[in-house]
Amino acid sequence: MKITKDLYQSSLVLLTDFYQLTMAYAYWKSGKGEQEAVFNLFFRKHPFEGGFTIAAGLDYVIDFCRNFKFESADLEYLAEMKSQDGSPLFEPAFLAYLSQLQFSCDIDAVEEGTVVFPNAPLIRVKGPLIQCQLLETPLLNILNFQTLIATKAARINLAAQGDPVLEFGLRRAQGIDGALAASRAAYIGGCASTSNVMAGKLFGIPVSGTHAHSWIMSFDTELEAFKAYAEAFPDQCVFLVDTYDTLHGVKNAIKVGEMLRSKGKEMIGIRIDSGDLAYFSSQARQMLDEAGFPDAKIVASNDLDEQIISSLKTQDAAINVWGVGTKLVTAFDQPALGAVYKLSAVKNENGDWEPKVKVSQQSLKINIPGLHNVKRYYSQDKAVADMIYLEDQEIDPRGVVIIDPIDPTRRKRLMPAFYKEEILLKPIFKQGEKVYDRPSLTQIRDRASKQLEALDKTHKRLVNPHLYPVGLEENLHHLRMNLVLNAKKFEGEHEES
Questions:
Q1: How many CB atoms lie within 10 A of CB 425?
Q2: Which 3 state secondary structure label does DSSP give 11?
Q3: What is residue 432's predicted lDDT score, i.e. its pLDDT?
Q4: What is the pLDDT of residues 252-276, one digit of tens each?
Q5: I want to staple 347 with a disulfide (CB 3.0 to 4.6 A). Which of 36, 266, 373, 392 is the partner?
């Protein structure tokens, strides 16, 4: 099957916040537009009060950057914008500049399917200020949503304990784009298939589905409906049994299952979409087993999420497959990841990088300055800690201390020589040219699975997970503290004067 790349074939450069364009114009007016800068995209808290997050959306970012250009229709629209006095908002010379703008940034990013943690960058963008600024909104839009959904899917799959999870969320998703992105991200997070046929075509995700209550209701009897469906699809019969009376529906499914068997076919199973799922699944299992259908699957749906699935598991519900829709594709209990995009360094006239820090009364909102990367340390294939470090800083293999960026009293000493290490930010673009070999969606999904396997089970608890160690290398911690203190000192002097 040919899998579509470049989902959007034309530029989406105007998919941005208005202030990104006004800042770009002001950078151009002030002569700073081509000044080199570094921005980092990161999030501050795990979603769903969890202990891990799954990165997703990089493939969309690659498509966006490859098609980054201002087309004639974009420029015509911008030329029509007026300032308060009725004059054109943007000078013709600026629009001419935009017409010649070619994407030339370096982008380093965490690969999709990687387990990631707060404050560590998911994407680092280095290049001219104007380009870096114009990338902020679309990158956040793409990564915030897909990372959120991939994480939700991973949590649901953990709750299912190895049972297949089917994503059924298209009809409840936030629009067409939201539905496609959610199906893709849910597959990365571990879902076995999607009901979204367009996502199947575009991304190569397996598609699955049964039939609706309307199919049953269109016939005079439930049994007649089951028989007609079996004639149409004798090799993939999963009967929805709760249109009228669930247990009577199971009896009708068994009758049609026997009819199929007499023709050399086998009923795959039944689906229950309402009522007491623990009770009805157990009763259905007993009925199916006694009738000689021990291999028939029981599929459950009906507003499921990881908490409900966990509860049903503790009740010994006889459910083999889980259909999850609304609460997965909408990230029902947390509608946004909250990732941010912050300037961390600019290049001065001497060609040196100057680290930049945003000061806040909330330590959570103080960004990490400089040109930095992330190393993950492994012991016997288990992830033990992530270190955020300055790329030009030499790391002593005999010992390093990492310091929590929010609570500096939380520290961990590592001896890098005794661990395997992985640098998490990988080159994606160099001076605007793609240098990254894009993996298939299946490979991304496999990476997510392996990354979760490398994470200790205490970090994967759905409730009150253990905190995974992520810290700043000591030199980066001191740089950050000095910049904050200097900024506060300057602030105080300014107030006194």
A1: 21
A2: coil
A3: 98
A4: 999 999 999 999 999 999 999 999 9
A5: 36
Residue 366 dihedral angles phi and psi, to the nearest 5°: -85, 120
Beta strand 238-240 with 269-272: parallel, antiparallel or unpaired?
Answer: parallel
- Tracing tokens 């947390």 back to the chain, one arrives at 334
Please name every residue paired with 433 in a beta bridge, in sequence order, or none if there are none: 430
For the chain, state the CA radius of gyration. Answer: 27
Q: Measured between alpha carbons, how far is 174 from 170 in angstroms, rounded to an integer?
A: 9
- Per DSSP, the chain holds a count of helices (H) and strands (E) of 15, 21
Buried b vs exposed e over 132-142: b needs ≥16 C-beta within 10 Å? bbbbbbbbbbb
Q: From CA 153, how far away is CA 147, in angstroms rounded? A: 10
Q: 3-class DSSP state for residue 309?
A: helix
Give the separation between CA 376 and CA 382, rounded to whole angstroms: 10
Q: Which residue has the tokens 């149409």?
A: 232
Please name which of 103, 115, 19 lies closest in space to residue 455, comparing C-alpha atoms.
115
Distance CA 243, CA 273 (A): 9
Name every residue whose Cβ is closer than 8 Å to that of residue 107 and which is 6 or more positions away in sequence. 61, 65, 123, 124, 125, 126, 427, 428, 429
- pLDDT band, very low/low/confident/very high, at 363 (cuts 50, 70, 90): confident
Cα angle 311, 45, 183 (rounded to 5 degrees) comes to 60
Could you give the CA distance from residue 228 to residue 94 in angstroms, rounded to a whole number? 66
Residue linked to tokens 């270190």: 387
The Cα 211–Cα 208 span in angstroms is 10
pLDDT in tens, 449-464: 999 999 999 999 999 9
**E strand or H helix at 145, and its extent?**
helix 129-160
In total, the chain counts a number of residues equal to: 497
Cα 49 to the chain's mean position, in Å?
16
CB of 175 within 8 A of CB of 207? no
Given a contact cutoff of 8 angstroms between Cβ atoms, the answer to whether 166 and 316 are in contact is no
Q: Is 125 helix (H, G, I), strand (E, B) or coil?
A: strand
Query: Which among 138, 1, 10 is positioned nearest to 70, based on CA atoms?
Result: 10
The CATH architecture one would assign to domain 153-329 is Alpha-Beta Barrel (3.20)
Domain ranges for the chain: 153-329
Asked whether the CA dihedral 179, 182, 184, 186 is positive or negative, the reply is: negative
Per-residue pLDDT of 185-197, as tens digits, reads 999 999 999 999 9
